[in-house]
Amino acid sequence: MATPLSDPSLSLSASPLKTVAVVGLGTMGTGIAEILAKAGREVVGIDISEAAAAQATAALESSTARAVQRGRLTEQERDDALARFVTSTDLRAAADADLVIEVAPESYEIKHQIFRELDGIVRPETILATGTNALSVTRLAADSARPERVLGLHFFNPAPAMKLVEVVSSVLTAPTAVAAVTDLALELGKEPVAVGDRPGFVADGLLFGYLNQAAAMYEAKYASREDIDAAMKLGCGLPMGPLALLDLIGVDTARTVLEAMYAESHDRLHAPSPILKQLSEAGLTGRKSGRGFYTYDAPGSATVVRDALTPPEGASLVPGRTVRSVGVAGSGTMASGIAEVFAKAGYEVVLAARTEEKAQAAKARIGKSLSRSVDKGRMTAEVAAETLERITPAGSYDSFADVDLALEAVAEDLEIKQQLFAVFDKVCKPGAILATTTSSLPVVACARATSRPQDVIGMHFFNPAPAMKLVEVVRTVLTADDVHATVREVCAKVRKHPVDCGDRAGFIVNALLFPYLNNAIKMVQEHYATLDDIDAAMKLGGGYPMGPFELLDVVGLDVSLAIEKVLHREFRDPGLAPAPLLEHLVAAGCLGRKTGRGFREYARR
Questions:
Q1: Which residues does the UniProt record annotate as the domain 3-hydroxyacyl-CoA dehydrogenase NAD binding (predicted)?
Q2: Which pLDDT does position 29 carry in this prediction?
Q3: Measured on CA atoms in the order 489, 491, 497, 500, is the torsion positive or negative?
Q4: Which pTM was predicted?
């Protein structure tokens, strides 16, 4: 990241930012004004629209009234905050401000005009901040009479609730200006992250690439909007699915951000998906218009209503096969977790490994897991004992002769899986469903190792299987309809949420997750931001349960690299090429928590 230039004449640190003008009183501007007024600042809200100014005042009155009801403010504190907020439709009302925060529409022309006018209105020492998340702060600063006082101050929506604030410096920004707004952000109870000037900065720079890929996945009819959103919520613990989030942000806003990112990066992952342009130009911009990827009951509403694309409710029209017993092949964490899931749901389970000892060890692991559930009050000791009794360990796959569903959870190696499916083909009875838990290999390649490819399907569970609700159901071009219907029914019986996807690398979750992780690594590699800042930005600004580097170290850098290579090989997109830093760490044996060192170091147990 470039080092900001200093200007000795700018003595902002001695002048606390007591009066703040907020230009643009949409949702974001109103939210920022609320934070400032509650924190004791004199706030001037400015908007060319009298209606917007009146709406901002009403919103502040309403939000502070709710805060009083919830015991977060006293009546006196509310009265004081409201008294500190005034509105105007004239930019000259910013004349006495110590700081001006501009949150006008994402347009260079509009923002340039505001900054040019402010040059002739505010004092020489007044800091001018833009709330842009897509446009160049440097470009806005360069046209200002005093570029050293211009910076970016990027809040996240809803501003009162979201903790992250990105403080954006250009090469022209004075360090004293950065220090002043950083101190202000801290006083507001926010967590400021210092970043350089590039489209999207950290949080949106990573977020919008992911959202764009989700839109492209939907446009390609690879998966339904409901399944894409459910997969990312249940598979990654995200608060919202990507398509619902695009509707919340605004499809037109997302398109603007992506166009700015693509203009700088020329990375095809940032080239706006055509569906974003189509929806934007049709006026289907998301919640604010009442329709985007989903349909809402009114403009501005969060309530989704059924439309022509909503999947029908109820059971599949295709009758499924009967499944009473399940064979699970493997002895690792995933195999034992899946066996536990089926046994809890009442299925008879054969847990087979290469040796009887490995199978017994896997069953013992399940016993410990069930004991922990008993200790936590999630099940009785009697139910735990009955569950464990349903699991029969075996040292040979011949024990799968009578199972209705044979599911492998062995090493992620195509040759090993193909050999196992050839064994399934020989030992399993006619009509048995043969499933793979692969997360990255072609399911059809497993199917072709059998004489009955129509019976083969993917069932990608997520780790830990007993806790994670998602199963990606992967059909090949050869999978029979009744096999697909059966697997969806089985998922429901074991209390998992199935999502349908086709047989291509990464399926839904990994195809969207790992390019995002790879882009985070590139940010560090390019010295744009630190590990800690990126992790903080995605947790605080995106609502992610873990930052990308925390997650990479948990997953394992070797596993992550293998998935990145599969995605790059299949989609042939240069933007998917694994970051060299990831390859170097794996080559050095730094694989994450399991080795004690990955992107971070961990205390050895």
A1: 19-197, 326-503
A2: 96
A3: negative
A4: 0.90
